[in-house]
């Protein structure tokens, strides 16, 4: 989920030292960074790049299984950022969502409502990934 739909679509950093980013091919130009340049790291694009994730539009949680996770290239999975300023709440966030889903699915069936848009469309604009028209679903209590 966080690979295909990272809630925060990009990260920013401010350059503290001059740095030249060398390119891999002659067709591209090296990029010179100066002190105080602001850099945007496009998480969404990195997560959807077929060189990083073959068949990137496919929702395939098995990419992250114990067997396959060694194939994920370093710094290509960034939902919580990376480095010394990465998300301090990442473990709490993952635990919270698991508990929430467990409790909901234990007691309810999720059903579409008149407002549910299927297939889900990503809202345009803004820095956060969200659904166009909002996330709407109904809860039908499961009889014990
Ligand atoms: C799915 C939920 C969440 C996502 C996707 C998320 C994502 C992120 C990202 C991308 C960053 C920037 C990292 C970087 O620049 O490298 C960040 C920073 C941060 N997040 Fe989260 N976050 C989530 C939940 C939370 C929660 C639950 C908390 C607190 C309880 C939290 C607290 C923070 C803090 C304090 C920072 C700033 C860290 C710093 O600058 O040193 N986040 N988060």
Automatic annotation (TrEMBL):
GO MF: heme binding; iron ion binding; monooxygenase activity; oxidoreductase activity, acting on paired donors, with incorporation or reduction of molecular oxygen
Keyword flag Endoplasmic reticulum: yes
Compartments, record wording: Endoplasmic reticulum membrane; Microsome membrane
Keywords assigned: Endoplasmic reticulum, Heme, Iron, Membrane, Metal-binding, Microsome, Monooxygenase, Oxidoreductase
Residues engaged in binding heme: 87
One Gene Ontology cellular component annotation held by this UniProt entry: endoplasmic reticulum membrane
Endoplasmic reticulum is among the record's keywords: yes
Pfam families: p450
Cofactor(s) it depends on: heme
Topology in the lipid bilayer: Peripheral membrane protein
Domain of life: Eukaryota
Protein family per UniProt: Belongs to the cytochrome P450 family.
Function noted in UniProt: May be involved in the metabolism of insect hormones and in the breakdown of synthetic insecticides.
Protein name as annotated: Cytochrome P450 9e2-like
Organism: Sitophilus oryzae
Gene: LOC115888896
């Amino acid at each position: 989920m966080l690979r295909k739909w990272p809630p925060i679509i990009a990260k920013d950093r401010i350059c503290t030292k001059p740095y030249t980013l060398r390119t891999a091919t002659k067709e591209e130009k090296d990029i010179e960074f100066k002190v105080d340049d602001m850099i945007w790291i496009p998480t969404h694009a990195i997560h959807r790049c077929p060189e990083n994730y073959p068949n990137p539009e496919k929702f395939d949680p098995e990419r992250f299984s114990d067997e396959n996770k060694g194939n994920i290239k370093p710094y290509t999975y960034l939902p919580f950022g990376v480095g010394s300023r990465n998300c301090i709440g990442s473990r709490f966030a993952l635990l919270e969502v698991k508990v929430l889903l467990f409790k909901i699915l234990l007691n309810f069936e999720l059903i579409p409502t008149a407002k549910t848009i299927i297939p889900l469309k990503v809202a345009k604009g803004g820095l956060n990934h969200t659904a166009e028209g909002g996330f709407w679903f109904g809860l039908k209590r499961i009889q014990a």
